[in-house]
Amino acid sequence: MPRTCSSPETLCEKCRPIYKKLQKHKLPKQLTPDVIFPLSEVYPFVLKQEFPANCSVEISEEFVNQISDAIKAWCKERYDIYDVDKLRISFNATDTTDKRDKPITHFALMVDAPESMILTAQDIGKIFSFMPRKYRERWSYVSFEEFDDCMTYHRLKFFYYMVR
Question: Over the stretch 43-102, which tens digit does the pLDDT of each residue have?
Fold first, then answer.
């Protein structure tokens, strides 16, 4: 996975347009340059889910904190990562419609892991065990290591969807 774009000054042709779009938005204070362009080596992965508009899951700060705590506990247990407070976890939730034009909330989280991590369906089930059973499944997992192009492009895209 190439890591060509380490700052706004070194953006590749693919990253430059999305970074310009991102700059047009008011960025949350936690979205600092070192989050967008991490200095240390990170291994990002994303977990995504689509929730129906009328579901029992409320996307709230408490929900986000529950997920963060569950991911940190999993990292500690599965990978012996004890400094879990250094894990950076970013979230975005977008109200949209599905293929049948029904309202849904597209929810995604990106974890900047300190080492390469592979999540199985069992791992995902364990992380989301606090949720109602029907929402523990159907999470999609994508590791940025699977991409052949610039990792920063995928980070910028994630953050753009977070703020738009």
Answer: 999 999 998 887 767 788 888 899 999 999 999 888 888 788 778 999 998 889 989 999
Give me the residue label for tokens 């989301």.
128
Facing residues of 43 across strands? 113
Q: Output the six-digit token pair for 18.
A: 């999305």
For helices 15-23 and 151-163, give the axis angle rounded to 10 degrees: 30
Strands (E), the chain: 43-52, 88-97, 103-113, 140-143
* CA 150 to each of CA 31, 62, 140: distance values in angstroms, whole numbers, following the listed order: 19, 33, 21
Our CA dihedral for 71, 73, 78, 81, rounded to 10 degrees, sits at 100
Task: Return the ∠ at Cα 150 (arms to 148 and 156), rounded to 5°.
Answer: 130
DSSP tag of 14: T
Cβ of 75: how many Cβ atoms within 10 Å?
21
Instruction: Identify whether the C-beta of residue 93 lies closer than 8 Å to the C-beta of residue 106.
Output: yes
CA distance 44 to 143: 6
